[in-house]
């Protein structure tokens, strides 16, 4: 399949000049990409980073000569290997797509057809072009699976998409993109949906494949540490404008642009762990079950010190969220008691007083579903003010404004609907709603896991600041070790509905760790461009 | 995004900002994009509405005013002739709009009040209340509607209010099912849980948190149910157990003058006369459906 001239490494493959893309929303055309130049040489990986909405994906797709429905390419040139893609007819472009330019999407699960076996989908393009026989194509696909370090490469292709894990599917998708040995691959956040331990393997496999086949790639992500491992050069986008472009090492060590600098500095949150003997919540010997089923929580004992942050970690199904439901009263416990400020909390939500409800507030993982899409921000934040304190009219408006300022937003957000906010802004409004009740305890259920990294750090910083300002206590439910490192005082480790250990962060995070914790901790990407290489070396050595 | 700061800021995150438009402006934008069928439907519905509202001003004669000649043919005096006891057919057609549409509208409102209220309650509580309500609804739905309505009307007599209540109750079963089904998708949202955690009462959760989010399908269903109720009333009137004389009503007008059709050989216009109220029923039903179709299409976010 390698009859085609692959060119020499270093030749210019893709050259985009002054690309402008408009998007249609709210009855008008808006510029999404405002005149960006992009050059990519053969065998080179370019990292595109930026917050969500910066135009990364739009630009990535434009490199294929494709624009999403509702968008249009207004001006600029896109040269791919000497061909001008912008003026090329659709059917010619379709011939390029999949064969010479491939696209790897964020969600592999959504990109595979669940009704066909993996290998049939992998070789589909190669067969369509009639380059090879089915047998040859299959043999090649198996080679690719091996290159992708998929387990049992001879047979894995004969499974259906639902029969392999998410990480394997993502690697299979990269194999599919590689099947026709494209000149250019566009990776659009390929590891964002994966957990850290799988991410390492996928990254290693992708990097290896790109190197081996001398493929050029555009790697789109919001994860700075990931892009540092993958890219030769990094381009930073914001509001559809290029902020800075430089070679990876230079970009990491000496960013020039102010915005880029602020991106680099956000990964440095660390809170000095402290504890207190004054407990705001004591959970004593709690058992809980859903319906008449088996107990999900077994004899759980947790103490939450006042004004501190306790992170509850554990894999999914370990009972973290169930514990939160017991504290909030959504799921009455079968046994045991929950003491709030030394007083017993009634197990059932209905039996709790308005004061008790007010003092415990909750922030959810998905800010989208935590806010009523038909209420304005003013209504959302204003309701607890009215409900608990009777603030109405101008008085309420002044308080809402005060809260908006606390979460670093301004007056212009008052009359907006949730859909008009970015993910981070939504989560901030949820925080403001919780603060409006003037609570003593806030339960944060995976509040940052659905957000971009840059935005995540902003939220964590805000939460820390609020704690110092008003002395609120947090229960922080998460599976993200980096978040735990950043903001917790104490850590509770849960496993299968039981508390494994509770202690100060400095004690729990201190080696020696149990094997699983070790794996988890070492898989969190670091900003060092050599991190992945060294980690793989170290793991091989063991 | 007027100013673009160089450093990260929460307020500067990219988000879609809508132009502040009044509801009227938004409606106007939607209206301009409406397909011809929807515009036709809206036009017809508003003409019907106008006629119904101002019936006494438009109609040349009174609703039950009797003239000497019965079954008179079309003339300058009586545009569509007179009926079997000598009432002006055109005037009764106009009054009929008011009665038939008014009663159908009242019935639909009542059926939404009952079905919607109970449906919301069932979806939120999801306990024995839900079980009992759903069971009752299933039993009611198992009995053929028209026959059940005939039976109940025979028992309770066909006063206007009796008619409204009986049809509303029978029709509310479908509204209940729809409301419960769409509410179930909203009830699981975190904002409903947040409201519960805040200590909000059932009424607030029903009216403020859930109802606004299920309104579009309900409004569309309202149009459809209105058409069905309208047809049911017309059928019942045609059978003689619906709206009772002397109140003018399209269904009974068809029935009372149906015999004229047999004389088409001698007086074509006279034979058409009983078909006019039938056509009025059909036209309104079709128009309402045109509007509902467009509305459903728009709110469900379907393209093309």
Walk me through this protein's architecture.
The complex is a heterodimer of chains A (542) and B (304). Chain A is an alpha/beta fold. Chain A has two domains: 12-108 and 184-268, Rossmann fold (3-Layer(aba) Sandwich), CATH 3.40.50; 279-510, P-loop containing nucleotide triphosphate hydrolases (Rossmann fold). In chain A, the strands form four sheets. Chain A has a six-stranded mixed beta sheet with strand order 6-7-8-3-9-10, with helices on both faces. In chain A, strands 16-17-18-13-19-20 form a six-stranded mixed beta sheet, with helices on both faces. Chain B has 304 residues and is an all-alpha fold. Chain B has a single domain, classed as MetI-like fold, CATH 1.10.3720. In chain B, 69% of the residues lie in helices and 0% in strands. In chain B, helix 4 packs antiparallel against helix 9 (202-239) and helix 5 (128-142) packs across helix 7. Chain B is globular. The mean pLDDT of chain B is 86.
Blueprint of the fold:
The complex is a heterodimer of chains A (542) and B (304).
Chain A: E1 12-25, E2 28-41, E3 45-49, H1 56-62, E4 71-80, E5 83-84, H2 90-96, E6 101-104, H3 108-111, H4 118-122, H5 124-128, H6 134-147, H7 153-156, H8 166-178, E7 184-188, H9 196-212, E8 216-221, H10 224-230, E9 233-238, E10 241-247, H11 248-253, H12 258-265, E11 279-289, E12 295-305, E13 309-313, H13 320-328, E14 335-340, E15 343-344, H14 354-359, E16 360-363, H15 367-370, H16 377-389, H17 393-406, H18 423-436, E17 441-445, H19 453-470, E18 473-478, H20 481-487, E19 490-495, E20 498-504, H21 505-508, H22 515-522, H23 531-541
Parallel strand pairs in A: 3-8, 3-9, 6-7, 7-8, 13-18, 13-19, 16-17, 17-18
Antiparallel strand pairs in A: 1-2, 1-4, 4-5, 9-10, 11-12, 11-14, 14-15, 19-20
Chain B: H1 23-32, H2 36-53, H3 55-58, H4 89-125, H5 128-142, H6 145-156, H7 160-187, H8 190-198, H9 202-239, H10 250-257, H11 268-272, H12 275-299
């Amino acid at each position: 399949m390698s009859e085609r001239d692959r060119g020499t490494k270093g030749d210019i493959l893709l050259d985009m000049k002054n690309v402008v893309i408009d998007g249609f929303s709210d009855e008008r055309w808006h510029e999404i990409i405002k005149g960006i130049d992009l050059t990519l040489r053969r065998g080179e990986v370019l990292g595109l980073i930026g917050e969500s909405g910066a135009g990364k994906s739009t630009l990535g797709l434009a490199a294929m000569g494709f624009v999403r429905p509702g968008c249009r390419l207004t001006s600029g040139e896109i040269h791919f290997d000497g061909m001008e893609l912008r003026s090329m007819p659709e059917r010619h472009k379709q011939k390029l797509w999949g064969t010479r330019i491939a696209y790897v999407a964020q969600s592999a699960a959504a990109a595979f057809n669940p009704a066909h076996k993996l290998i049939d989908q992998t070789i589909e393009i190669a067969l369509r072009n009639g380059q090879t026989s089915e047998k040859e194509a299959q043999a090649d696909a198996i080679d690719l699976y091996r290159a992708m370090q998929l387990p049992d490469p001879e047979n894995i292709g004969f499974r259906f998409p639902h029969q392999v894990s998410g990480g394997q599917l993502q690697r299979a998708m990269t194999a599919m993109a590689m099947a026709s040995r494209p000149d250019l691959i566009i990776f659009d956040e390929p590891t964002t949906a994966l957990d850290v331990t799988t991410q390492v393997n996928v990254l290693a496999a992708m990097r290896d494949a790109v190197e081996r086949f001398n493929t050029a790639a555009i790697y789109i992500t919001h994860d700075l540490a990931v892009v540092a491992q993958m890219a030769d050069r990094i381009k930073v986008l914001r509001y559809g404008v290029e902020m800075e472009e430089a070679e990876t090492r230079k970009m990491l060590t000496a960013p020039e642009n102010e915005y880029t600098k602020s991106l680099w500095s956000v990964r440095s949150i660390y809170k000095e762990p402290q504890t207190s003997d004054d407990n705001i919540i004591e959970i004593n010997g709690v058992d809980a079950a859903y319906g008449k089923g088996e107990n999900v929580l077994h004899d759980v004992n947790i103490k939450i010190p006042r004004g501190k942050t306790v992170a509850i970690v554990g894999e999914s199904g370990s009972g973290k969220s169930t514990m939160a439901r017991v504290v909030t009263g959504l799921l009455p416990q079968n046994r045991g008691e929950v003491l709030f400020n030394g007083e017993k909390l009634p197990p059932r939500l209905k039996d709790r007083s308005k004061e008790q409800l007010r003092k415990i507030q909750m922030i959810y993982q998905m800010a989208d579903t935590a806010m009523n899409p038909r209420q304005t921000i003013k209504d959302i934040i204003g309701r607890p003010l009215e409900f608990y304190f009777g603030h109405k009219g101008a008085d309420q408006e002044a308080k809402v404004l005060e809260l908006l300022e606390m979460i670093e937003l301004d007056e212009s957000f008052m009359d907006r609907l949730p859909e008009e906010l970015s993910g981070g802004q939504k989560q901030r409004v949820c925080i403001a709603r919780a603060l409006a009740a003037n609570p003593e305890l806030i339960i944060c259920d995976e509040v940052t896991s659905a957000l971009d990294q840059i935005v995540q750090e902003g939220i964590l910083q805000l939460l820390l600041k609020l704690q110092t300002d008003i002395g609120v206590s947090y229960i922080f439910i998460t599976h993200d070790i980096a978040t735990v490192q950043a903001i917790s005082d104490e850590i509770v480790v849960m496993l299968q509905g039981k508390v494994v250990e509770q202690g100060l962060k400095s004690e729990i995070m201190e080696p020696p760790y149990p094997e699983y914790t070790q794996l988890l901790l070492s898989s969190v990407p670091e900003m060092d461009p050599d991190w992945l290489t060294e980690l793989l070396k170290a793991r091989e050595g063991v | 995004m007027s100013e673009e700061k160089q450093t990260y800021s929460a307020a500067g995150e990219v988000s879609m900002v809508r132009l502040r438009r009044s509801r009227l402006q938004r409606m106007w934008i939607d209206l301009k994009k409406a397909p011809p069928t929807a515009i036709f439907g809206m036009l017809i519905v508003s003409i019907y509405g106008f006629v119904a509202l101002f019936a006494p001003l438009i109609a040349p004669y009174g609703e039950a005013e009797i003239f000497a000649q019965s079954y008179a043919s079309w003339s300058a005096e009586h545009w569509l002739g007179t009926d079997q006891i000598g009432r002006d057919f055109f005037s009764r057609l106009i009054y009929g709009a008011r009665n038939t549409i008014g009663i159908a509208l009242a019935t639909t409102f009542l059926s939404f009040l009952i079905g919607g209220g109970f449906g919301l309650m069932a979806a939120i509580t999801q306990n024995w209340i839900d079980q009992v309500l759903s069971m009752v609804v299933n039993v009611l739905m198992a009995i053929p509607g028209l026959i059940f309505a005939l039976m109940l009307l025979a028992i309770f007599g066909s006063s206007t209010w009796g008619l409204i209540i009986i049809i509303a109750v029978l029709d509310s079963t479908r509204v209940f099912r729809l409301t419960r089904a769409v509410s179930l998708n909203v009830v699981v949202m975190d904002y409903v849980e947040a409201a519960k955690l805040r200590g909000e009462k059932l009424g607030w959760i029903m009216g403020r948190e859930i109802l606004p989010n299920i309104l579009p399908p309900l409004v569309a269903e309202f149009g459809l149910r209105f058409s069905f109720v309208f047809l049911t009333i017309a059928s019942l009137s045609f059978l003689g157990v619906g709206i009772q004389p002397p109140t003018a009503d399209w269904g009974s007008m068809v029935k009372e003058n149906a015999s004229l059709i047999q004389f088409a050989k001698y007086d074509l216009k006279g034979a058409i006369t009983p078909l006019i109220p039938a056509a009025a029923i059909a036209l309104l039903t079709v128009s309402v459906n045109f509007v509902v179709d467009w509305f459903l299409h728009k709110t469900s976010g379907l393209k093309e």
